[in-house]
Design goal:
The protein is α+β, with helices and mostly antiparallel strands. It has twelve helices and 22 strands. It folds into two domains: 7-333, Peroxisomal Thiolase, Chain A, domain 1, CATH 3.40.47.10; 348-468, OB fold (Dihydrolipoamide Acetyltransferase, E2P), CATH 2.40.50.
Amino acid sequence: MAEPTIGLVGVGGYVPRYRLSGKALAQVWGGGASGERAVANYDEDALTMATEAALDAMAGRESSRVGACFFASTSAPYVEKSNATLLATVVDLPIAVLTADITGSLRSGTTALRLALDAVAAGSVREALVAAGDMRPVAPGGELEPLLGDGAGAAVVGGDGVIATFAGGFAVSHEFTDVWRNDGDRYVTALPDATFVKSYGLDRHIPEAITGLLERTGRKKEDIAKLVLYGPDARTHAALVRQLKFPDSAMPKESVIGRAGNTGTASCLLGLAAALEEARPHDQILVVSYGNGAEALLFEATDALASYRASRPVSQQLAAGRPLASYGKLLRFRRHVETEVIRAFSSVPTAVREERQNFRLYGQKCSDCGAVSYPRRHLCWKCSSTRLAEHKLGRRGRVFTFTKDHLVPSPDPPTVMVAADLEDGARFYAQLTDCDPGTVTFEMPVELTFRRIHEGEDYVNYFWKFRPASV
């Protein structure tokens, strides 16, 4: 009896809207920084970005099939509290889902993916969701500021509709201190001797993992059609690619690190999503992460990839970046300067009671007239019927009306409030983000995105906001 085919059934990536260029940094700090990196908005963090990537990976799939959810990050919003469980809730996974946070190493993203593959292969779960996101804190003016970008990647692992089968993996672990952040430290620290790090870390650990994988799977470098490789920065990434001597055709048309920066644990999953956008059926795709050793995973694209389309292609997100208006905005976004923080009243009992409404996005639909209500109510707003059934809301709509609030504290004023009519008929009221306030118009297409709202009671309060709809 043939072994079941296990692999990727969906992928997703998320790159924030804003870009910080080396030129902008040079104007502030001097020097000759080049390139650009993706910068998360003030209402984003590693978890919200991972949620975006996960929602893309899950687009069109039945959430009830997913039995495990792994979240990988070195910069998760909570140190003690399950981030993966909140991710699973927002993606509307079943309550009987296994959740786990994978952290501590920059290769946590591929480790989480390997765990998901093993769980599905063992029959423990039917499908598994993996999401990785990082927004690593760096000191203003420091050496890492031009290099570390923000982003997320996700993958759904299963056995039905596989777009890339899993061919094997190989990992090596080495105690090696090159990048770290101690408990209580605000910023990431990197060993200043980059030559030592490359010679005794990257140049040794990455080839070791690749050699082990190729030997285990019986492949040669010439067989690899797409290479997804971690790199601490764009220049070192390019040098590593040349040293490894893979075919020139294995290189992506445009490396993600060149436009988004080093996205940490998310880099390989984000790169994998981008590689699959270019890959063709039967291409061999090698994914190699790094951090206290290295890990290599091999996938082979299937015929199903030809008809697979990502809901938000990574290539489009990279191309759609907008320059950050000023370096001062970044200082406010990251609270490097004093800003007024909203600590509104928060209620855990209310959050528990309204979980399906506020996180999973369930409203009501009238069984008599079909009108959709949000938030929940006792009577239909249109016909006053009491026969209201639970209804999963869509996430896209058009602006019905809006207002601009210049009084509420915000790192990026004014705060734009929008009432939008969703495609299923519900009217939803929320803040608008990732948008120039001057461009807001009636009937503007918008979509819901999961973001931070405030920090009442000293914990993070999340909810949905609108942003301009992607193509």
